[in-house]
User: Fold this.
Amino acid sequence: MSENRESSVLGGILARGYSRIFFENWPMWVGGVLIGIMSVVTFAWARPWGVAGGLRNWGDWFFSVVGIYHHKPLSPVVSTNSILTFGLLWGAFVASLLSKQFSIRMAPPLELLKGIVGGIFMGVGAAMAGGCNVGGFYSALSALSFSAIAMMIGLLIGAFLGLKYLYWELEHLPSRPTGGTRASEHKEGFNWVQIEPYVGAFALLAALICAFMYNTQAYTRVGGLLLCGVAFGIIIQRTRFCFVRAFRDPFMTGEGEVARAICVSLFISILGFAALKWTGLRGESVYVSQAFWFGGLVGGIIFGIGMVVAGGCGSGSVWRAGEGQVKLMLAVICFALTTSLFKAFIKSSKGLTALMGHRVFLPDYITYKWTITGLLLFLFVYYLLATWNEETEKFTVEM
Assistant:
């Protein structure tokens, strides 16, 4: 009798723990801290976190297969860019299954069109800025690249313009539901939702097996990056971490929760990246984008418009596609194809390449000490500004 009771108590503890992890969203600040830590771990292991590079590799591979490109890109199976992005998708898929949130969600025709248009805009912007909201802004700022500041300004301007369009759409186009329609949970007596956690556990196990297989084939770094990508996907899906909200919500609702979480995340990431570069463990030029100032600023504006219209940034579109949202699946596909084509277009002209800008590694100009101090102070001020705007709604845009 005592054994049965002990087993029952242990089962209850495990059930409550599982519920806390997978049935309740994690606090946003926890997501910021974990993403910051994982960003440093990923860089220390092999390379910085990015999304657009992986999508571009997928686009390059597709155009090579259909004969449009004559050069053969690195296989998506071994490309570190591709593996990180695929891991993000896989991790979000796993987390959505474990939390019973996966479902193929269709959207109205206008929303599907916005996913396509937004994906195209993001593809163009990422090609110009040397990356998306992750590679061109988050990881670039962590890498002490000045082009990240230009892209941040561009993202804010683009988010503002994208929000103005959404308000115009609400006023002038017929009102339709914008949310995805969840597929039926019961079909002929089969309850898919109840078995989702088991499928998710199997998918997680499959990721571990794949990572181990890379290790046995002398691709240890690739296998490790796959696990890093999966970790990013799980963290972002469980916290609903979305860069779009960081740049859009201060203008729309005044909310600054995500903006503050990104500031905290960047505090950690900048210190980690600086330590790795300062000590010579990683190259100083890594992720210092050749996009200051034109590419970062103008590319950021175009990307910012696209992410607001699509309803997801580079990372946001990928993890929501992993949850089964068709609109964001279209955004990811269009992003991948467009960024590949536009990057090839830029590279075809020396004038366009030069126009995008040049590399500016801040410690080359103001030393590591002043670079780190200046960036952390900048983020602290932005943290306070986001909080102040949340209280005053000073920067909110009215319809």
In short: The CA atoms of residues 108 and 178 lie 7 Å apart.
